[in-house]
Amino acid sequence: MSKRENDSFSIEDLMKTFIKENNLTKGMQKIKVEETWTQMMGPGIATHTTSVKLQNKTLVIQLTSSVLREELSYGKEKIIKMINEELGDEVVTKLMLV
Predict the structure, then answer these.
(1) How far apart are CA 73 and CA 71, in angstroms?
(2) Does residue 34 lie within any of the structural domains?
(3) Beta-bridge mates of residue 61
(4) InterPro entries annotated for this entry (predicted)?
(5) Does residue 2 form part of some domain?
(6) How many domains does the chain have?
(7) How far apart are CA 76 and CA 1, in angstroms?
(8) What one-character-per-residue DSSP string does 5-39 give?
(9) CA-to-CA distance for 52 and 38, rounded, in angstroms?
(10) pLDDT tens-place string over residues 2-49
(11) Does 18 fall in a domain?
(12) What DSSP element (H or E) covers 40?
């Protein structure tokens, strides 16, 4: 009988390897951006958000409130910086509030 290898890997490392090998990085980033937006902005803004999409490093946020859209437009650079810090990579370079 052959001996078992006792190399132990964390689930996080295995998932990262799987994602990288199967070219799933962009899809995972899209999911993480949506989750990060809801988490960072809180329930007040999340209820007025109808769509969160990541397209070619541009984050497109669709809002139901024009007043909220105007308020958020003043802090676009800060929002981009906060999202990128949360994700640990420069995923977003432009923010569009629609």
Answers:
(1) 5
(2) yes
(3) 52, 97
(4) DciA-like
(5) no
(6) 1
(7) 62
(8) P-----HHHHHHHHHHHTT-HHHHHHHHHHHHHHH
(9) 9
(10) 555 656 777 877 777 776 777 666 777 778 888 888 888 888 888 999
(11) no
(12) helix 25-46
